């Protein structure tokens, strides 16, 4: 139960940060896809930079996970069709809906009930992927 509370706390803080930075705003996402504002590109760039630094710290210092086991991060395979196809679907969905999957629950918590349709679509897409994954290029 103690671990669940930690994860909930991190989730709440993450939700607050995304809300305060306006990363869950449909208008900010619309501006991004219209190339009218740097706001979202700045947020995404900071997230990428933070991830790169974090991964390098883990790899170079051989940091262990919470259970004391070494964290091994395999190198990604070089460019392939699955990344382009997956990125295309993700980007199109993001542009059409005005939200990526991350803030779905944040938007529900903020009272945007129409996002339930997006949640249903995300769950349906995940389910369909599970059914079709053996037939898709991996």
Could you please describe the fold and organization of this structure?
This protein is an all-alpha fold and 138 residues long. It has one domain. 66% of the residues lie in helices and 0% in strands. It is built from 6 helices and no strands. It has helices spanning 2-20, 26-33, 39-61, 81-97, 104-109, 115-132. The longest helix has 23 residues, at 39-61. It is globular and about 45 Å long.
Return the structural class: mainly alpha
Please give the count of helices.
6
Compute the number of structural domains.
Answer: 1
Q: What sequence of helices (H) and strands (E) makes up the elements?
A: HHHHHH
Can you tell me the overall shape?
A: globular
Strand content: under 5%
Number of strands: 0
- Please give the largest β-sheet: none
Sequence stretches where pLDDT stays below 50 over 5 or more residues = none
Averaging pLDDT over every residue, what do you get? 86
**Gap between N and C termini, in Å?**
37 Å
Radius of gyration: 18 Å
Which range best describes the helical content: under 10%, 10-25%, 25-40%, 40-55%, 55-70% or over 70%? Answer: 55-70%
Keywords: Membrane, Transmembrane, Transmembrane helix
Organism: Flavobacterium psychrolimnae
InterPro entries: DUF6691 (IPR046513)
Protein name: YeeE/YedE family protein
